[in-house]
Design brief:
α8 crosses α12. The chain has a 5-stranded mixed beta sheet, sandwiched between helices. It has 12 helices and 9 strands. Pfam families: HTH_30.
Length: about 300
């Protein structure tokens, strides 16, 4: 039984088409097999999780991608073949803004227009699948302001009625590093999705999780036992300590965030130190505790 035959049992709507056919079926999500056959499955038979699973052994293809600009073609050539057209001006600096849209049926051209409206000038946007792609934020002068993405997912969600997640890479001034930065960013975006982090995640936000991701299950279980022994079920206490650490160990600020009296918060901090032996007021104890708390959420 072929892969397509097996998939037909799970997705009755599946259709196949040859690559040379040019008609676009917008009701379908498209994939390519190792035998270069293009198959489509209707949107309503897929959710984000199943699409991601299919993408492991099939190659997602986008048949209705908006026509690329000259700069987008140049970036695509650089990222796929390592070649930058010397006749095209390279930016002083750039960063990748990866995006993932929950609803794959959202019109790409409308989404692309919405993304472009966020910037003071047109930015290259490349799509990888019906759901995923990336913006290349190019900077050509020191006076050019870079975009802050705070609050943007909420605005876009109200426009498109679907969730959009962003992962933002660091800036680089050398285009030769672009393929490596994009690959690193794609790993970071994957990890952010697995950890169910906020709708906007930066390369800095993801760094603690990179360390945590390398932990084996056995080692994590040992760390959890040694750090949280006897208090694992005290969720209020653990949440207090996390807010305290995320507030820079500022008792007054943490108390305001938790709507509690400063003395009550101080009591909980002292209680945690007494029960665990980890002094979260000191750098070493704070780092160990915070990383463990992040992994507890996962």
């Amino acid at each position: 039984m072929t892969v397509i035959d097996q998939l037909k049992q799970m997705y009755p709507s599946i259709i196949t088409r040859k690559p040379e056919d040019h008609k676009i079926f917008s009701d379908y999500v498209w994939f390519e097999t190792d035998e270069m056959e293009t198959i489509g499955i209707r949107h309503e038979e897929l959710d984000a999780h199943s699409t991601e699973l299919l993408s492991v052994f099939l190659t997602p293809v986008s048949l209705d991608q908006p026509a690329m600009t000259i700069r987008e073609k140049n970036w695509s050539s650089l990222l796929q073949e390592g070649q930058w057209n010397g006749e095209i001006e390279s930016p002083d600096s750039y960063r990748f803004v990866l995006f993932s849209i929950e609803d794959s049926s959202t019109d790409k051209e409308i989404v692309q227009e919405a993304f472009q409206s966020l910037f003071p000038q047109e930015m290259p946007i490349l799509w990888k699948t019906d759901r995923d792609g990336f913006i290349i934020e190019e900077v050509f002068s020191e006076q050019q302001e870079t975009l802050s993405f705070e609050g943007i997912p909420d605005v876009l969600m109200s426009d498109f009625y679907t969730k959009i997640q962003f992962f933002i890479s660091e800036f680089s001034s050398d285009v030769k590093y672009a393929p490596f930065i994009l690959e690193w960013s794609e790993d970071g975006a994957r990890l952010a999705k697995e950890r169910r982090l906020e709708s906007v995640v930066t390369y800095i936000d993801i760094m603690p999780y990179i360390y945590l991701d390398s932990l084996s299950v056995d080692k994590w279980q040992h760390i959890k036992r040694s750090v949280f022994q006897g208090i694992e079920q005290e969720t209020d206490l653990l949440q207090t300590i996390r807010v305290f650490l995320e507030s820079g160990s500022n008792t007054t600020l943490a108390a305001k965030k938790l709507y509690m009296h400063r003395n009550s918060l101080q009591y909980r901090v002292d209680k945690f130190i007494e029960k665990t032996g980890l002094d979260v007021k000191q750098f070493e104890g704070a780092v160990i505790t915070y990383l463990a708390l992040l992994n507890m959420d996962h």
